[in-house]
UniProtKB/TrEMBL annotation:
CDD domains: Plantacyanin (cd11013). Keywords: Copper, Metal-binding. PANTHER family: BASIC BLUE PROTEIN, BLUE COPPER PROTEIN. This is Phytocyanin domain-containing protein. It comes from Urochloa decumbens. GO terms for molecular function: metal ion binding.
Amino acid sequence: MGWSFGVTSWVKDKPIHSGDVLVFNYDPTAHDVVEVDEDAYNTCMMPIGGGTLHTSGNDRVVVPAGKSFFVCSMPGHCANGMKIAVTA
């Protein structure tokens, strides 16, 4: 289904390892992917200075060890479930 609303449970029962590559597919005229900290993920408020922004519509992100958080920064998208957290 790609990067869309309601994807927060996508990682359930999926083993994620550091070095794995997450691929985010989406319409870049309507969405983006921002790597943020846990607070921004939980509150859906983008940190000052933002996070790492991806806008290609076919983003490939290498997962580091530990927790990683991704949100769509378009107004209302994160709050409506367009976000994902992974632990490697």
